[in-house]
Input
Amino acid sequence: MMNESEARQLCLDLIRADSEDEVVRLLVDAGFWNDDAAWRYYGDYENNYNTIGNQQGRPEAALVEKLVNAVDARLMNECLVRGIDPEGPEAPRSIREAVARFFDGDYHPESPHAGQVKNWSDTRRREVAHGITLAATGAGARTGNPCFTICDCGEGQTPQRFPDTFLSLTKSNKVRIPFVQGKFNMGGTGVFEFCGKQGLQLIVSRRNPKILDVWGQSHPSDSQWGFTIVRREDPKQGRRSSTYTYLAPVGSDKSPCQGGVLRFTALTMPIFPDGRTPYCRECEWGTLIKLYEYAASGFKSNILMKDGLLSRVDLLLPELALPVRLHECREAYKGHTGSFDTTVSGVSVRLEDDRANNLEEGFPSSCIINASGERMTATIYAFKKGKAETYRKHEGIIFTVNGQTHGHLTADFFARKAVGLSYLADSMLVMVDCTGFTPRARELLFMTSRDRLRSGDFRAELEQSLELMLKQHNGLRDLKERRRREQTEAKLADSKPLEQILEALLKKSPTLANLFLHGSRATNPFKTFRVRQEEKPYQGKRFPTFFKFKGYDYGRELVRETPINMRSRITFETDAANDYFSRASEKGEFCLYRLEEDHRAPQAAYVGPNLHNGIATLSVPLPDNCQVGDELNFVAVVTDPSRVDPFENRFSVRVNNECTPSGGTSRRRTPPSREPGDQREISAGISLPNIIEVFENDWEKYKFDKFTALQIKHTGTSDENGDTEDTNAVYDFYINLDNLYLQMELKAGHRDSNLTRARFKYGMVLIGLALLHDAERERTTRQRKHVDCEDVRVQECEEDNIEQQVEKLSRAIAPVLLPLIESLADLEEEPPVVFRLGEGT
Output
């Protein structure tokens, strides 16, 4: 067995090693790599791959768990050095309280700004961030995978405690500690699957001596540094799966595979980086974890660049409890002295710091959602054009708990027909704060890996609530119309003759006339927006002076008639700021109660108030057991820290007979005629599209390339009173008239160029209409068959939406479209073949 000096040197060599081969060589030279007795099963469980292999699916999601554990370690350290039992009554009751008590300096528990990093100065953030660092070393993006080293000056662990802390799987180390995040006791193992081929991870740690002074020592080695290496072993000796083991040679000669980790005595160790130099800042205690050759797919480049790790950490930890310092230490990247390290505080803090340059006027906006009795707050960020790419990739809606992302829905959620925000899909981010969930609700929605959502009824209800919230948001609807106007208004003026040609094509073919819908575009889609645009920017108050039903005096009761198959929509007006319900400090609270005899019962499900520029909309579903003629009584209560008495607004909902949305006025519509002539839409689905021609000089604007043929965007419906499921969808069709295959046909010169372009254009339009018609037919069929709601939701989430399908299929069809039309046009009817009976052969 090596002495302490040799152990320290081996530890330093492992810290500085930047490849798996180098680590293996060091351990072979030390006599450990091939000594099976010196390796102990991770978690003391031979079949540990069953648990470890079922962690995060993405490398960045697994990596941030290490940062979360580092934050927990720092909070634990501050608690323990003060002699506070983390599970006792004197301990902080939340992460925010712990940050306020231990890091705010002057602690004022009544302050609404307590425990929030966004209220700290840049100097304070940087100072605290030096206590948690992530450094990239080793190979650059072109030569291999990087190594990531996470260091913290948290509580640290004694060598004897390694098996029960860093190297445990199922022990409840933190489950009863209210101010930490990591409670599943296995989040830190998710990185193993991404650590090179051998799954190598180095752990070095020393317990804070001040904690030992306060709580005492239980073993002579408690003041020493301990270290170990975790590795993956392939199946052998009849074992069906791999297993993870860690180096534990101390005492393994007497107890094979049950030894302790290596240890040594040292006053300090150089574990922290400084600038772009790794492992140079000395520390008396703390923890270092190094991940060798990490499979950083998508963020191998400079971690501080736009496409690097920084943006991924920002989004996965949008409201970090404590800031983290990132260091790019690889020699492959050049730059000035200050360009190799930066502080990460979370995307919410970044947006708060630079809101004016990134967000549209009036955003962020907030909305309260109640689903199955679980309350959450959604914050909607609408970015200025081109700004969203800095803060998100494919994520559209992220679900957070205590500032950490636990799952997300992709941005194509905004392009769903039930949402109708295709024009904003690349400019939006919604954060849903689920911190207030009950433990059972967290289990229903989130996987224990905290990187994806579970399917189920709760998720389906939540998605429906989000669809409704976004569709009814006045600010988003106005912004969508402005974006659409900016993108299409100049070209829509030229689309009328195209529309007339398309109508003529449809009328010439009875098959096409029956298959597709006849109609016109939504009337003057920009008129309403232009009026609104002239209004002055809304200036809301931090604390509202009124909150009442729109058009009613405060105190007057509202009566709403609602068909039994629809939600009841209530509109309030107020002078509150848009972030009134979502801001971190001194925010407003909204509660909806059902009045039943002599008591108030909390309403289990509702969406809202959806607050934007002084208008707040509330959507309330009717109970499943209600009947026509019932009258339901509610009271909406709004309060905040400034108010002695809350705002209370009472309303009644009278349940009427079932109603089918008509897409216009409430009068009964005349059944459609099958006779030729002027016709309106025959079946629910698609109105005639707006056709917009796109040329090469606009490719970047529309995100086209030479292979793009057709893109469609959902603009809403032809219903002037708002979107409903049964009104006709309106789409804008963008045709690429500089498509590679169209240009090849034009250069060949077989036909008149105008005719060739027309064939390509209208052929693509008909293909797009056919795909839309088929998607609508499938949706209607599922509804008629009462397909299980969960099956439908899974299909919607996992399959590409119709806009993506149209773009993909039109791209694939473009090479053959014109040759196909040409070939079919040249076909002639073949004469029947008559065999003369009895003729000799």
User: Anything to note?
Assistant: The chain has four domains: 4-75+115-348, 350-478, 494-519+679-826, 539-656. The radius of gyration is 32 Å.
